[in-house]
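Example for tutorial group B:
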């Protein structure tokens, strides 16, 4: 199974959680991957484990300078960028009264500005090479309204908007831009408090498939959108939430 053989992938937030699983699957499918993260210790350890197809670079995705450095390093290392996966993001769970504007600005810096900067810096490289695939990780919280998610949802709705605008603008250059909207996914660190656990239980009870998703299921969708199999898909919202959006 080498559906991504010969492709060079830039993946943010790849040192742990869902991003780590994406990195493993991408490499298993034949891709060469540069993955980035703030956590240098975890990133370097994972790169050593994954072998010659993996390169790690420390990055703050909200920093324009870091994006310029990472894109330059990617081109120097692999010669180009076929796929960008804007996976890095931070989560917030709290009522409107409990949240604060500083937290909102931090979430928007990482989840929204980080995605926007990635597209801006990578698009010229892809255009010069004849095209590519950009995958933005949004969320089911960017598709439906849910209590206690006003801050996080704000960022993930914005990621969907960026995706659609970029798909329209970059399509003539053969650059595809799609969004993945996961629901409740196990082993991502999002449900690590009593309140968040209760929210996950409510999601389970209202989900037609009556379970949370697995990281591998999201990674399979990432591989599909990164591959040429999805060559006529752009500007789409790919919900992977067990049908929870139907509730």
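The residue assignment follows.
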């Amino acid at each position: 199974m080498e559906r991504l053989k010969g492709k060079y992938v830039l993946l943010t937030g790849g040192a742990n959680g869902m991003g780590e699983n994406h990195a493993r699957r991408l490499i298993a499918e034949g891709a060469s991957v540069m993955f980035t993260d703030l956590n240098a210790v975890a990133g370097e350890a994972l790169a050593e484990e994954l072998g010659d197809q993996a390169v790690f670079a420390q990055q703050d995705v909200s920093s324009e300078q870091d994006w310029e450095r990472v894109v330059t390093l990617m081109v120097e290392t692999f010669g180009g960028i076929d796929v960008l996966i804007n996976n890095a993001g931070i989560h917030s769970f709290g009522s409107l009264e409990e949240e604060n504007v500083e937290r909102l600005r931090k979430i928007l810096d990482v989840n929204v500005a980080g995605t926007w900067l990635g597209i801006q810096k990578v698009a010229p490289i892809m255009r010069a090479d004849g095209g590519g695939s950009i995958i933005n990780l949004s969320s089911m919280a960017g598709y439906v309204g849910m209590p206690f998610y006003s801050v996080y949802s704000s960022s993930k709705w914005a990621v969907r908007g960026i995706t659609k605008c970029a798909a329209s603008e970059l399509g003539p250059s053969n650059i595809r831009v799609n969004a993945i909207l996961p629901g409740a996914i196990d082993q991502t660190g999002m449900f690590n408090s009593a309140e968040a656990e209760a929210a996950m239980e409510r999601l389970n009870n209202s989900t037609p498939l009556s379970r949370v998703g697995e990281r591998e299921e999201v990674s399979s969708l990432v591989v599909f959108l990164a591959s040429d199999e999805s060559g006529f898909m752009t500007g789409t919202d790919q919900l992977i939430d067990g049908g929870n959006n139907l509730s």
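The helical segments are 17-28, 40-50, 64-78, 101-129, 150-170, 194-206, 215-226. Compare this with the pattern of hydrophobic and polar residues in the output above.
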